[in-house]
Amino acid sequence: MGATSTKIGVVDDNGKVLDRAAVPTKGQTNINKFIDSIYDAAKKICAPHGGISSMEGIGVGAPNGNFYTGDIVNAANLPWKNQTVHFADLMSKKFNLRCLVTNDANTAAIGEMEYGAARGMNDFIMVTLGTGVGGGVVCGGKMVYGHDGFAGELGHLIVNRQDGRACGCGRKGCLETYCSATGVARSAKELLDTSKDKSLLRNLTTELTSKDVFDAAMQGDALAQKVFAFTGEILGEALADFIAFTSPEAIVLFGGLCEAGDLLMKPVKESMEKNVLSLWRGKVKLLRSQLPQSDAAIMGAASLIRNASRQ
Amino acid sequence: MGATSTKIGVVDDNGKVLDRAAVPTKGQTNINKFIDSIYDAAKKICAPHGGISSMEGIGVGAPNGNFYTGDIVNAANLPWKNQTVHFADLMSKKFNLRCLVTNDANTAAIGEMEYGAARGMNDFIMVTLGTGVGGGVVCGGKMVYGHDGFAGELGHLIVNRQDGRACGCGRKGCLETYCSATGVARSAKELLDTSKDKSLLRNLTTELTSKDVFDAAMQGDALAQKVFAFTGEILGEALADFIAFTSPEAIVLFGGLCEAGDLLMKPVKESMEKNVLSLWRGKVKLLRSQLPQSDAAIMGAASLIRNASRQ
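YS: structure for the whole thing
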């Protein structure tokens, strides 16, 4: 479930997405009507596969989704922003199926464990680098939900206490103010403002995005390359701290920013190795998601059901 | 097991320490002779309780103890400092009992979960404030050992990346350079050197310790009080980050520095609440260990066996 639309898929036991649909999320202030529209779309794509009643369950990845309660709680970018929506409950009644909910970083982690880069791993950390930065922590083969279901807010660990950037959460210096797509654009703007270096980014006529920074870097733009080096350095420092916390076998990176490939991965890896406690130097894998990007969200959500039925 | 001596105890099912003994650790370069001396001491204190063969197992808390392998690995302050000692294996053979090993912060955490402040909790974080700073992370009722058995090195998360203090680990700015007993003494020395403020600590004829800082603070010494406020602020900032990681029900503090009571706990609590993501503000308990200090190490080690037999 995203702010704009909600993707729906029929997924088989092997994680293959058999059919897809989407309904708008934006403007759906009436939650029951929203669920009706999901039901109608799901019914169509389930029909060739035995119908809704033959499905094992419904997995949902939603912003601020709580695994324990099945609620979506105060999600700033959804139509019910200051409310608690009993989403799993409502879905479960409508579909007569088990419904499990968690946030999208957690579904990404479970998806990776079931079908992707973390197959066979008991201990790993997922970091999603999108508009914001999300985290999913797996320890001993289990997703860490914490006491209240909201564990893994890795984008809100503080990486700069001295003069950190203002974050949407109201605090300063959060990881996501630097290492998200938005953070990359912010770094580029700062560098353009505080230096007189030439850059292709000075010619833009639209609002600068991380994609612009990537494109410029790939064309050899030194300032844009510097932005990725800076982003990678900060992310690597943070990952080194994450390692000391739960000692994962691997850290898996996922999300739009990973499309930058080596431009990002190389400085991240260097910084992580430079900053990690010697005990772990050269021992923790840094991986990119292995789920096909177009289906990753759906596979991740579906894996919630597969994972739960195995525990 | 400490650098100076190894404490041994007979512990019943309720965590009561029935009998105690100790053997020196220092100078025991021959591991087999060391284990013989532990055996002889244990035999004596087990005799009134049915003898060694009637014990359920042996729990060991040792620096750099690895739960998965039972080894003690490169422990800088033990006589086998650059070696891997197969401690659990050797003990198990000698005693003909199951032997489990982990580091002392983890035994402290399990002890607290079985007998202390964290009874009934599934998600909490233990932070030990001694000569160094150690961590034990419990998620979903299970100790987090991580991929290699060394998870929870919370004393080595970086709290100052700008001009952090040199740490024994070779890096700079680790939490334990500020919030350990050693860190407190270091802060006091820095403040004495960089200010001209009057302080009882200027009259010391011996090497300044955290205990001196505590005593002076209790006598109203403003500089010493400032040291605890500074220590608490840094620790609170770090705990706020820990909360975002695993969303614990409580953080339990343990170790010598906690003896400072409110002098430390008050600024820690204030700083933690001020710095934590609003989602958790006012919701995570900050507790002190509830194990009797003299027996805490032995109870913690014994709880390894009790905890394992329950899983």
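YS: worth flagging: The mean pLDDT of chain B is 95.
IM: good catch. Also Residues 222-246 of chain B form the longest helix (25 residues).
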